[in-house]
Amino acid sequence: MQLRLEHVTKRFRETVAVSDVSVTMENGVYGLLGVNGAGKTTLMRILCTLAVPTEGRITCDGEDIFEMDMRYRKILGYLPQDFGFYPDLCAEDYLMYVASIKGLRPAAAKKRVEELLHRVGLYSVRRRKMKKLSGGMKRRAGIAQAMLNDPKILVLDEPTAGLDPNERVRFRNLISELSQERIVLLSTHIVSDVSYIAKRLFLMKDGRIVHQGSMEEILEHTPVRAWLCTVSKERTNACLKKWKVANIRAGSGGNELRVLSDLPPMEGAAEAELTLEDVFLYYFGEKAGDDDALL
Amino acid sequence: MLYYEFRKILSKTGNRIALLALLVLLGVTCYFAVNGYGTSYTDEQGVSRQGISQVRKLREARLAWEGPLTEEKLAAVIRKHAAVIATPEYNSKDATEMNIAYSWTQDYQDIRQMICRAFGEFRSYDYYKIDSLSPEDAADFYPNRIRALRTWLDTEAKDMYTEEEKEFLLERYEQLETPFYYTWYLGWDKLFEYGPTIQMIFVLVMSFVTAGIFAGEFSNRADAVFFTSYHGRKKAVTAKLWAGVLLSAALYWIVWGLYSAVVLGALGADGASCQIQVHVGWKSFYNITYGQLYLLMSFGGFLGSMFLLLLNMLVSAWTRSAVIAVTAPFIMIFLPSFLSNLSVPWLSKLLGLLPDQLLQMQTSVNYFNLYEIGGRIMGEVEPLFALYGVLSLLLLPTVCALYRRAGRG
Ligand SMILES: Nc1ncnc2c1ncn2[C@@H]1O[C@H](COP(=O)(O)OP(=O)(O)O)[C@@H](O)[C@H]1O
Ligand SMILES: [Mg+2]
Question: Which of A12, A89, B260, B378 is the most exposed place for a label (fewest CB within 10 A)?
Fold first, then answer.
């Protein structure tokens, strides 16, 4: 299975949400990383045929996905960013309904729904109304929904946003488990989400893919190095203005700053290993948005 | 798919409330129909009472006049009435005395109304007209109906109709079989009186339910999953439409069936073969029976409801807003009655063809709107059924097409 995007551009009236994106994906997990407003959702909606690109085309094994129509949707699973459902249906009925519109026969649907309910840990609450489920449970129902037709292409838009750290770890593991034998595209503005599970990363900024590759490739090709240097509390503010500082750790002998720079920023600076968080800061000019670890 | 679409609709709290409200309003309407004007019986002491047993007594009294309304029978009514108005009770100023006098007239009240109509002008009704008649006048009863129309067409309505149309009306009047057959008809009468109310309530309440079927995907933000599913742009959309149509149709017949059963059960189902000219359609140029009018009303209401609810679903699919969708049937039902107050001649012809007319067949058969279609002159009933039959069929694929398009930005 090969999914290929060629010069995909999407313009809204005044904004260019996606600009000249060309990428190729084969089986495995791909991470789409970018700050809010980078165009991740728009790109994913196009991939799911919910929006038509203004320019460019997308092919699946050489065939245009919009021409494939139903055949493409047959192999597609999608968890939208603002995942919505029918609040008064119970989890099981919700999944049975989605199974029916995904073309599963009733008997097969029943089996598949039961299997997925176990898999995502919702079996015990299957008769509970969707609106009564916790945020994490809803999200898990969302991924179960996306998995119903055993999709060859699984698109997950910010699947971990708003989850607490435990739920997030659990979710990550679930996605890893589900990622065999298919293309999984996962968007996030949280670096730690993808750094463990994605085989390739796309860094998206202002609608463009500014950098792509495996984690190692990205770290290797990012033209910046990380340095640890200790400065007194009084000098900290001046340093923050001067350099890109990825982190500050308060110590007894002053603050230890993590500075991104080509050259050692000062005497006695020790080079540290570059992390994906550093890369994120370097490209996007802001902190990797780890919801629960902000400065 | 259809099954879960139904579950989606019926699990929604708002929809359950709406259906409960429908049931309550059905009960209220039935109550008013069964206890409305004309259902009380006045005994010889002048005391009026309501209730099923009283209706039985009234029916018993009226059935004394059952049978063909011949000249002799009409003369007998005029004679009996003359005797009543000569009594001191009738001329008394005392309420109880007057009520006692009324109790002597209630067996022939139906026929009295017919006589007053027959001997009045085309556009007027005088409840005391019978007081001035003598038994010999009975011979003019049937000819008078035609004479009144002819006079009206020659004077007041002179410029309102073409010669062909006038001829058409007179011909229809002359074709009416006489003498009428008279029997107890109150059950049908009340059924027709409150039928439009219950049909209107049905459409307005149901429109809350059907408005959510298409717009709900968007308001629940479930549209992305819906439209990216295998059947999401075809069968799943059709299933929504069928869920709406089947649910509306099933509930219509249940509501209408219950309403008819309650009203006819309480007030009596006699009179299905009476001509509508006996009471609800004295002036109507549709020569049909009460039973036939009931069928017209049942299917007119059905077609009108389906059309308005399809329109509601169309707006819902198009605007993605249930709130806007709900207003569509409201406007279609209430705007015409507002406009009809303006009394512009060409407007009345147009209003006669609006879908709300299908929900009030008992007035539609009484309207004097004439249309010439394919060289044939007809009233509004035939074009209404044809027009909205076709439009409803056209709406079915249009709703689906619009919704499919809504799912792609
Ligand atoms: N339907 C739309 N109409 C107009 N502008 C839009 C629409 N959808 C997205 N955009 C704009 O496109 C840009 C990218 O948005 P989005 O794809 O949601 O980014 P992300 O998912 O990375 O946060 C934003 O500037 C947003 O305002
Ligand atoms: Mg987004």
Answer: A12
pTM for this predicted structure: 0.91
Q: Which of B150, B182, B214 is the last residue of a domain?
A: B182
Indicate the domain borders of chain A: 3-220, 222-284
At which residue do the structure tokens 């500075």 appear? A259
The answer for B404, left when phi > 0, alpha when psi is -120 to 50, beta otherwise, is: alpha
CA-CA distance, A275 to A15, in Å (whole number)?
A: 32
In ligand 1, the atom with minimum distance to the C-alpha of A10 is 12
pLDDT tens across the length of chain A (295 residues): 899 999 999 999 989 999 999 999 999 999 999 988 999 999 999 999 999 999 999 999 999 999 999 999 999 999 999 999 999 999 999 999 999 999 999 999 999 999 999 999 999 999 999 999 998 899 999 999 999 999 999 999 999 887 888 888 888 888 888 888 899 999 988 887 787 788 899 999 999 999 999 988 988 888 888 999 888 888 888 888 888 888 888 888 788 889 888 888 888 888 888 888 888 888 887 655 444 433 3
A254: left (phi over 0), alpha (psi -120 to 50) or beta: left
Say how far apart CA B199 and CA B204 lie, in whole Å.
Answer: 9
Q: Are residues B130 and B221 in the same domain?
A: no
**Ligand 2 centroid vs A222 CA: distance in angstroms?**
25
Task: Please calculate the CA angle B290-B294-B295 and round it to the nearest 5 degrees.
Answer: 120
Nearest-Cα distance to chain B for A144, in Å, is 12
Question: Scanning the structure block, which residue is given the tokens 């694929």?
Answer: B397
B366 and B382 fall within a common domain: yes
CA distances from B367 to B175, B241, B371, B385 (A): 18, 34, 12, 15
**Token pair for residue A201?**
């990363």
Residue B95 neighbours by CB under 8 Å, 6+ apart: B46
What is the least distance, in Å, from the CA of B42 to any CA of chain A?
A: 54
Q: Which residues are near ligand 1 (CB < 6 Å)?
A: A 12, 15, 17, 34, 36-42; B 409
* Alpha-carbon torsion, ordered A227, A233, A237, A242, to 10 deg: -30
CATH topology of domain A3-220: Rossmann fold (3.40.50)
Residues that place a CB less than 5 A from ion ligand 2: A 40-41, 81
ipTM for the predicted complex comes to 0.90
Please indicate, yes or no, whether residues B90 and B176 belong to a single structural domain of this protein. Answer: yes
